[in-house]
Amino acid sequence: MPIKKIKLDNSVKKSENSNDDQKKASSNVNYIFYFDGDGKIKCDIGGVDNIELLIDSGSNHNILTDKTWTFLKSCNIQATEQNANPGKIFMAYGSSVPLTVLGSFQAVVKIGAEEKNSTFYVIQGGTRDLLGKETATDLKVLKLGLDINAVSESQNQGPFPKFKNITLDIAIDKTVTPTSQPCRRIPVPLEEKVNKRIDELIELDIIEPVNKPSRWVSPIVPVLKSDGSVRLCVDMRVANKAILREHYPLPTMDKLLPKFRKARIFSKLDIRDAFHQIEISEESRHITTFITTRGLFRYKRLMFGISCAPELFQKTLERILLPCEGTLNFIDDIIVYGRDEREHQTRLDRVLEVLKKYNVTLNKKKCVFNAKVVQFLGHQLSSEGVKPLDTYIKSVDTFREPKTIEEIQSFLGLLNYVNKWIPNFSTTTEPIRKLLKLKIGLKSDLSKYWEQEQKTAFDRLKTQLQNIQSLGYYDPEDQTQVLADASPVGLGAVLVQIDDKGPRVIAFGNRSLSEVEKRYCQTEKEALALVWAVEHFHIYLYGRKTFDLITDHKPLEVIFGLRSRPCARIERWVLRLQSYNYRVVYRPGKNNIADPFSRLCQFTHNTFDREGESHINQLVQYARPCAIPMQTLIECSEADEEIQLVKEALNTNMWEPRIIQYRIFQTELWTHDGILLRNDKIVIPTSLRKQVLDAAHEGHPGIVAIKGRLRTKVWWPKVDRDAEAKVKSCRGCTLVTAGNPPLPLKRRQLPDQPWQDVAIDFLGPLPSGHYLLVIVDYYSRYKEIKVMKSITTADTTTMLKEIFSRLGIPITLTADNGRQFTSQDFKNFCQEMGIKLLSTTPYTPQENGEVERQNRDILKRLQISQTLKSDWQSDLLDYLMMCNSTPHSSTGKTPGELFFSRKFRDKLPSIVREKSGVDGEVRDKDTIMKEKGKAYEDRRRKATEYGIDVGEKVYVKNVSKGNKLTAPFNPTPHTVLSSSGNEYNVRNDDTGHEYRRNIVHLKKVQGEWQIYDPEKHAQDVPLDSNEALDSDKNE
């Protein structure tokens, strides 16, 4: 639909903006009228789509009928600030009967890409839903006055307006080493809003993606606004070090005063999002690159935070306005003046014509036309002349009388600083100074000592302090200092300049602390004082080469540094000062002349950063664990002794030993509504930590996952340790997670001679039904392989007798827990032969590693035989010939040579040499290679030494699972009875059955447990899967 246009003639402009008296004269009655030609538009109100509103240029307010309100409620409108009695009176145009107002509410209204948080009034019996003038203008569907302020509907979805034919180059110092900073973690609930804002900026052609590496990368800090949307602040403090500034001079009032002497009529124009209307050259954009979770982006337009932005914009706009008479600008504020209405209107028309030529878009809400009194550069311009604003010079007038010795010292400190401009200083201050001789405490009440003599001297000094000759004369070339101080109730600031004649006071300032701000810790109050002071003296400091911020709070020197990570509240304030070039300097409190302004002034209640408090409130809400009500969190924090000691230490900088673990984070700690926070994470009181850990472990995340989950919202000392203990003590997690890591390898010592220590095992069954009996000599690695159809104990002992008849009887025989090796008949056979039988721990084949390794090689050759369809038994003999005549990797000698003290003669031609003593060489080689293999395997498997004490409770690994959902470990606790090396004897606490296991098959039971009492359990309970398998092995 077309944009509604309304032409305001000069008389209407004048009547709307002439002076404050006319504004105050307007009554509380709000008239509602519309024309038939007014357009309709569909919009989204509080999340409800397709609400048709009539654009009413004659109403300042948004009006809804009671029927529409009922419909919105049925659609679950997202409304806030509902008020049954808003105190507004509405009348239809031409009527004297007030309309019935049912109430008001606030909601976000959206039209296209534009949105605004607006107030709607509900009228009983209304006939039309109206979109008021102010809201329609802000949403860019209504155009008022001259076209310079209009934004067409097509622009709602397109690029943001920019100055025509103007592109800025930012000078970069290439000698400064580029810095690529990491991405700062963004609270998870804000990620969606940040991504949405990035998409909006891309659509507006303000930023663009970066698809290649960038040497300059800055982080972003998302700031929540009161309407729930987010603003992206790029931390340019490091990148600004590489930007070369032109130091183009900004205008000062002392040089502009002669131009305003005959001015009577004024107009003040403000440029909408001024910096974003100037495009940056392609070569300069890389310095603005910032990183998000979605990757790299950079600005295409000038942005807040670039140190040279103010001076570049000032120079650009001055050149644009050069053809315009009676026109001056300070950054984005333009002042047009004239001796009479005719001259002023001619100049204003010329200015608007030039601005339109360069496609400059103004902010109508901040523009003032045809006014007799305006404020500009900290001064009030009127037909009566130019005078400084009271906000800079009248702070002293609000001084109350000192009530303590400490306050007297503070007041006299200020007077001593400017005493050379106060006549008869010593005589005038004598009645007050003599109170310092009283032998009372610094904070003792002085009421009974404060008499008329002191009151007269105090009032006279206040008057002289306000009228010192130098006050108000500012020279941009002189050294400039801002002294700021915070007391428990207020803030004070003094602007001082120093020349060859010494220091002089330029301006004063003070403000009270709101009830919320009074609860800040002292570091936050002092930081607030610095930021507020800079913005209070903005017209003197903006665009300066440099100035000093003087504070009596030492930690601020670090907190305001480039590499610091302050708490969320201070971080937001620091970013507000990015466009100023300042240096924070510590100076002891006794030399801070801003102290009396923070203590003695009589204050009015206001809040410095309301949007910031909304940002903090939402951060706390996002960080709060949902299972814990906010009131509970506040009450537990107030009752937590540790947190209260930390709060006190933040104010006094006195850290007790019991809270010393907080001190390293003191620059990141802050308080809000009784809650202690570290950056944007809540510090959980001791009494709630178990509840928070339980909530974080819902869904059974692992150690890494639960730590990551906690770190996004909460913190307390050693939170990672507590999270790790929580996961380890969870019975469900313990039963299903992976077992213990493998132990470091333990190498078997090389026997003294061949056929002392041998290992035996069966391989099979093979597809033919055969089994292979494999015997390996640990000294020479010589092996024997026998093909068997039956592997009973009798058949096994018969085959061993045949082997022993040829090779002799070994000293030890190592075997697994197969039935034939654990039977009593086999034990008797070994005893008869004088062989020591060594059985491995069940399900631990690595204890008989030599023969298991040979089994793997044998199986590989059998697979080759089957693939080639050859005779596998014949191939097996060829394999044996190859193995016994090939040097082993550990010994360097062939198994046949070591076993028979001669070389095997095979098909390869060779020269037979006489036997030489090789035992020492073999032993050294074997030791070296085993140690290398041990080190490699321990490193590859991340092996580590650990043990389990006798009497401890353990879970035993299920070696045979019933199905895929069966946990790796048996949930029944077992008690460790004894141990030998890595072998442990354990007892089932339910059945009392005892069996052996390797330590890697055991896992400690974390948390509380009880000692098993066999008398309380039945004797004949069915065995579990572990016991059944063990019994099969005849343990």
How large is the count of helical segments? Answer: 33
- CATH architecture annotation name of the largest domain: Roll
How far is it from the N-terminal to the C-terminal residue, by CA?
90 Å
Residue windows where pLDDT falls under 50 for at least 5 positions? 1-28, 33-38, 146-156, 610-616, 1018-1035
Largest sheet: 7 strands, mixed
Total beta strand runs: 44
Give the helix proportion (percent range): 25-40%
CATH topology of the largest domain: HIV Type 1 Reverse Transcriptase, Chain A, domain 1
What is the CATH H-level superfamily of the largest domain?
HIV Type 1 Reverse Transcriptase, subunit A, domain 1
Question: Beta-sheet strand percentage?
Answer: 15-25%
**Count of the separate structural domains:** 7
Task: Round the mean pLDDT to the nearest integer and report it.
Answer: 77
Class per helix and strand makeup: alpha/beta
How does the overall form come out from the CA principal axes?
elongated
What is the level 1 CATH name of the largest domain? Alpha Beta
Report the radius of gyration as a whole number of Å. 43 Å
InterPro entries: Aspartic_peptidase_AS, DNA/RNA_pol_sf, Integrase_cat-core, Integrase_H2C2, Retrovirus_Pol_polyprotein, Rev_trsase/Diguanyl_cyclase, RNaseH-like_sf, RNaseH_sf
Protein name: RNA-directed DNA polymerase
Organism: Trichoplusia ni (Cabbage looper)
EC number: 2.7.7.49
